[in-house]
Amino acid sequence: MTRLVWTRKNVTLDQCPKPYITAQSLSLLEEFFIRRRFRTMDSEELSARQVEAFLVLEKEFAAESETGTRGERI
Question: What is the pLDDT of residue 74?
Fold first, then answer.
């Protein structure tokens, strides 16, 4: 049996997810939340990669806000 280390909704991992967070992904997260806070999501000035990342983040952020769940260590 695999020992679970991290779970969030329907995702479970048997290892810590932190190594999957790259400098680029952290930068996208920071920029997403800054732009969201200041309401500056003008897609004309964003790269295609940023737009795609921000759409995914917006969807996941909305889902988290609805349920109020957070990832937890086991």
Answer: 45
Q: Tokens for 13?
A: 């991992």
Burial of 20 (0-12, 13-18, 19+ CB in 10 A): exposed
In a domain, 14, yes or no: yes
pTM for this prediction: 0.67
Residue 74 lies in a domain: no
Q: Provide the domain count of the chain.
A: 1
Ramachandran region of residue 21, left (φ > 0), alpha (ψ -120 to 50) or beta? beta
Expressed as residue numbers, the domain containing 34 is 6-67
pLDDT of residue 68: 66
